[in-house]
Fold this sequence. Notes:
CATH superfamily: Aldolase class I
Subunit structure: Homodimer.
Largest sheet: 8 strands, parallel, barrel
Pathway: Carbohydrate metabolism; erythritol degradation; Carbohydrate biosynthesis; gluconeogenesis; Carbohydrate degradation; glycolysis; D-glyceraldehyde 3-phosphate from glycerone phosphate: step 1/1
Number of domains: 1
CATH class: Alpha Beta
Number of helices: 11
Family: Belongs to the triosephosphate isomerase family.
Radius of gyration: 17 Å
Active site: 96, 171
Organism: Pseudidiomarina piscicola
Number of strands: 8
Order of helices and strands: EHHEHEHEHHEHHEHEHEH
Distance between the termini: 16 Å
Strand content: 15-25%
Bound molecules: phosphoenolpyruvate
Helix content: 25-40%
Oligomer: single chain
Amino acid sequence: xxxxxxxxxxxxxxxxxxxxxxxxxxxxxxxxxxxxxxxxxxxxxxxxxxxxxxxxxxxxxxxxxxxxxxxxxxxxxxxxxxxxxxxxxxxxxxxxxxxxxxxxxxxxxxxxxxxxxxxxxxxxxxxxxxxxxxxxxxxxxxxxxxxxxxxxxxxxxxxxxxxxxxxxxxxxxxxxxxxxxxxxxxxxxxxxxxxxxxxxxxxxxxxxxxxxxxxxxxxxxxxxxxxxxxxxxxxxxxxxxxxxxxxxxxxxxx
Length: 254
Ligand code: PEP
């Protein structure tokens, strides 16, 4: 099955209104690129309205970096799905390793967030589920065990019909923001495992799920990573803050 390449920018706690204009203009100038590659930008939530003003006709799509699993209430500092959706988000990252490690996103909490996103207002939002092993887990040969546990828990309540609203991003924790990229072969091995696992659970519906690689993707290593058969695009942190580098990465997915 032919899946449209997908590249997602994760600005983390970075960016500005000025960078919003710069990156949006650079992206929108390359209409050929935006026809071939689905590009999503996940800025800090406070910049979503600025992004909304820059994008037209969904040529660039928007996402939130996280959500609270509750739809409203006394959750100071958090953002709900109705709020991020109203601000233009169509995608929501869930289970990013920085959230898992520093902000209490256990496998169970990730599951609750996935469930709430897929239940939201008639499935208007897509989940970008991040999974990945830590360095000591890879060193002790537990990579696949960790990925399987994260997938099985996060997707426990997800039906085959809902899978069309799911993206999986493989992000080895040791490669995020470290400059250490997984080799194309290492990444492909894990992506093939994820595809097989999804096929076992969901049969043909698994074919629709884009599988992204994330972890120190740069303009120079993107072509080899994206050439692998089970890598459908990337989740890009640091390099998404540099318009030229991010455009080169998106073009490598074309
Ligand atoms: C990320 O934050 O998801 C990420 C992959 O970051 P970086 O590209 O900087 O490693």
